[in-house]
Specification:
The protein is mainly alpha-helical. It is built from 1 helix and no strands.
């Protein structure tokens, strides 16, 4: 099971999530960012063109009202 998600994730929690994902996709995962957005928070447009590769985004909210929108 995944640990409870909150703004106070520990290093161990993050490692557990990374291990969980690696087991599910059978690939090594490199965590390049862990971001917490407060209520109504968001990331503005940006590019990752200097870091090519496959991406996995995990989005969580306690109420289920969060989402990821890729344009």
């Amino acid at each position: 099971n995944l640990p409870s998600m909150s703004p106070s994730l520990t290093h161990s929690d993050i490692e557990n999530i990374q291990n969980f994902v690696e087991e599910k996709i059978n690939k090594k995962v490199i965590n390049t960012a862990l971001l917490y957005y407060p209520v109504n928070g968001y990331m503005t447009w940006h590019t990752n063109s200097n870091f090519p590769g496959e991406r996995i985004y995990l989005v969580f909210s306690e109420t289920g009202e969060s989402y990821f929108k890729y344009l």
